[in-house]
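Dig into my protein:

:::
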Amino acid sequence: MRKAEITRNTAETKITLAVNLDAQAPVEIQTGVGFFDHMLTLFASHGRMSLVVKADGDLWVDSHHTVEDVGIALGIALREALGDKAGINRYGTSFVPMDETLGMASLDLSGRSYLVFDAEFTNPTLGNFDTELVEEFFQALAFNVQMNLHLKILHGKNNHHISESLFKATGRALREAVTLNPEIHGVNSTKGVL
């Protein structure tokens, strides 16, 4: 089973996180940030992976540390669960429509970290979640998984839909990339390593 458990404790957050790429349940998210819990649930459900997150952060400051540190922990856990990446597709791309919004995620589990983020929010908050933290989360995730991640909103107006489209699309693209392909022998790279 491709799975990992992470405990990450800092002066700002205490996080326990478990991911299993070969199971779809449980998905249990408790970060204290309702909108973020909703987004992570969508990410895991559309990525068809089990994800359990318990985060206690300094929410009396704001939700920045909690969101970023969960991104870091999730990235580390995914990297560990993937191991040497033998047999995986490596690449994944998904377009997800949400009513008036169309979002795209395209990624490469290359071992090289990069984020391209092309989305704008007109509302600074959704619940107790700052919309600028969408990019912060994906930055932390991409750099700790060690993947190239390109995110783009092709069109959209509703800030909830924009965020939801990106989280769903990333989950679906990641599912495509981590899927074991019997036609791939070893790692999917001419370098012989990812």
